Amino acid sequence: MASSDRRARERERLREEILDAVRSVAIEDGWAGLTVRKVADRIEYSPASLYLHFDSKEAMLEEVRRQGWAQIGQFASDLSVDLTAEERLVRLSLYPLELAEREPELYQLVFGMVLLPAPDDRSPEVLDAMRIQAEVTDGLLTKMGIVLDDPITEIQTLQAAIHGLVVLSLTGAVPGGLDRARILAERVVRNTLQAWRVGPG
After folding, report:
1. How far apart are CA 156 and CA 145, in angstroms?
2. Which residues, at least 6 apart from 31, have a Cβ–Cβ distance to it below 8 Å?
């Protein structure tokens, strides 16, 4: 049993090493420049060894994507209770921009700027992250006394505006880049919250 556990731990360690190498290559060469050989060279393994852990380059990308979604869910769960409900909702709404600033390659992969043949949008990580975000958002809106007639549409509209600013910044279409996008995005969020408080008029 001990030997079996040790092999399982070693296998998991190597998988994470491979995924770390995937991210490292993507940072240097972009997702378009990622190849299995580059990943293998980065960790000094043969390409054939990598295929013992992942069926394809796309499988590696999908796993990094799932981990990115898990990271989003964790962020939503860990929002500080020391902040007001409004500030927590602003932080949550702006998280895509924060991710793009810190890990632009991961943002691109998680939110579809890198097209995968069949992204697994039903994976537990994706579903859990979406559920947590929805539950946290709903709870914060309740604390703020905001009731929306069509919350799904309203929240999706806000999210679309934030992602639009991020994508435009990453492609160089917003002068000032992500710094300017953060200012604009926070204004969008706060103005939207104010409109939600007032309600349709």
Report:
1. 19
2. 61, 105, 108, 109, 114
- Residues 6 or more apart whose CB falls under 8 angstroms from that of 75 comprise 92, 95
The phi-psi region of residue 79 (left if phi > 0; otherwise alpha if psi is between -120 and 50; otherwise beta) is beta
**Both structure tokens of 136:** 């946290």
Residue 140 has pLDDT above 70, yes or no: yes
Could you give the 3-state DSSP secondary structure of residue 171?
A: coil
Residue 201: per-residue pLDDT: 56
User: Long-range contacts for 134-139 (Cβ within 8 Å, ≥24 apart)?
Assistant: 136/76, 136/77, 136/79, 136/88, 136/92, 137/89, 137/92
pTM equals 0.87
DSSP class of residue 114? S
SS3 state at 184: helix
Residue 152 burial class via C-beta count within 10 angstroms: exposed 0-12, middle 13-18, buried 19 and up: exposed
